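Case study 2.
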Amino acid sequence: MVKRHLPSARPAATTVRNSGPYAASGSSALKPLASFRFLRFVQRGLLVALVLVCVFDPADLFLHVKVPIFIAICAIFIVELMLAGERRTFPISLALYVGLFSVLLPLASLSIYALRDNTFETFAGWHYIKASLFFWIAIVLYGTNINFVGIISRVLTCLSCFIACVGTLMMASPLSIVPLVVLGTKYDNMDFGHRIYGGMHFPTVFYKTSPLIVIAICYYAFLFVRSHRISSALALTINVLGMFLSGTRANILISLAAPLFVFCWYARRKILTLTITSVVFIGVVGASMAVLKDMFSTGEVSNQVKIGYLSDYARVLGEPLNMLLGQGLGASFMCFTLQENITVTELSFLEVFRFYGVFLGIFFVGLLLYPIFMLLRDRRPENGFMLIGYVLYLLIATTNPLLFSSSGMIVLSCVVYSAYRYTRTPASSTYQVGSSLGPAGLAVSGLSG
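Prediction:
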């Protein structure tokens, strides 16, 4: 009988020798092993803390600990590499991708800004440069094999619970949320209000990081499809409700569409599932036509502002130098729609071309789309929900500036790690730094942990 060998969870080059301090036998191995476990425990705790801060305090105005936590995560990772005695390999493409996205592109755009306006009097790019450095978390995740998507999804579930509770309280007693309104204004993390679409009132508890909930929706939809557990169904429902109540058009529509996409992706009888989903979709659209008409009406206030931005971008990008080189990361421009100088709008992908110009802008967008190619190339079932979540997140990002924030970089790190964790890279295309203490592949069973 021919024996079939299952593919390893990580590149063949990650196979290690039993020569490091963690490979020792007997009592001599206990102390370094305990140190490693302690460092990994601290690392996991710091990652949880970083996600909590990025989700609940995106502007970092409350505790001011976002950067210290990030530095501590990187420092502990370096200590792990130094303590271990065996070599650890990372795909060159991953290191190149992270370096290009988080260092070279921002520095290139900063250089363009300096050449075009060396006064730096109106420069607002340090925030974006600092945020881009958070993308190095992807390297840490690849090296530690921590279930980061589980961490993010649990924290986002907490956010959804908060939104759902506040939304319920807001409908029952509007005046009771006044203290939260004050806090939201002070720390620039949430807005409250209501919208009317088709005669229906939609209370809005818009937390600035609520678009990230789409990742948790897809994650728990996948877990429910796989295990049919009540806990997964409950978490899925909470996240759908939380994202729906956040109130923006994109969040409302995608909160309902995301689980359907996941269910269709993993359905055994795809034709039957797609047929049923299509019938339900047509029925819902027909019943909600008045709501959808108001949502996408050009007379709606938010839509009017976004449409007004288009003429401003046409004017800015109509200048040849701006089109070719961009204005530089963090550059401001006169927005006649708002009658003021601004540094960023909700139209993120147009901002990319304003910052970077047409050539670097296309390259930047290509880097954003690269994880989609990676996830499609590896047809493992557990990649499907992340692919759907990331595509929907990018759709939301077309009208949300979260893409350039540290919170956005955290999500991108999670997606890139998910895309790379199963890659099989030949030894010639890896570089070695430090050691490996075991396989870093994340088994399907580990996703629910």
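Residues 1-28, 424-446 have pLDDT under 50 and may be disordered.
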